[in-house]
Amino acid sequence: MEIEKLAKQLKDRTPVILGSERFSKFAILLPLVEINEEIHVLFEVRSLKMRRQPGEVCFPGGRIDPGDRDEEHTAIRETSEELGISEDSITDISPLDYMISFGQIIYPYAGIIKTPSQIVPNPAEVEEVFTVPLSFLKEVKPETYHVNFKVEPEENFPFDLIVGGENYNWQTRKMKEVFYYFEDKVIWGLTARILKHFLEIICETPSENN
Asked: Where is the Nudix hydrolase domain (predicted)?
C-alpha cells in the first residue's frame, strides 16, 4: 500500500536540524596548555587586518572545508594553521555542545597543545595570543547582559493573511551575553559562551583527587 511506502520512507531517514543544509558550518578549538605546571586556556586576538571582527578575542577555528574528514579535523587543522604548530601536537580532543547562531552551526572542541613554546601565530589571522590560568577562570564570575531582538517584517509582508494583522503579537527574542575580563582583555560573544559552557562541564565533573 502507498501509505506503507510513505511510512517506511519517513522511518528510514535520519533527522537533522531543519534547514541546516543552508547553514554555514564552523569548528573551533578551546586550547589548553600547561605553563609552569599550571593549566591555562589559550586565546587569540584576531588580526587588525581581518575584515570581520578585527582585534576581538577568539579561539582558533574556522569554516569546515569539503576536504576535512570531520568537524574535529577542521578544529585541529585551523588551530595548526593559525598557531603555526603541527597537527600532531594537538591531542586529547573532546567535543563540547555544538551551537546554532544566526544561520551558523558551530562545533566546539577542547584539546591540549603539547608544545606551546613552538607556537608562531600566523600574522594574517592572529594579532597575538595570550593565556589565562584555568584556576582564575574557574573562580571569576562573568558579567551578564541581554540583547533584545526586534521583529521588523518587510514592507510587503502579507499581514492580511495572518490572525491579528499588523497587530500580531510577535514573540520577543532575547539573547544572553557574558563578559569575562582578564588584565586588558575582554572575552565576550561566542568565545565567552563556549568558555562558560566548558567551565560548567569541568566544574560539574569531580576530579580524581576528590
From this structure: 21-156
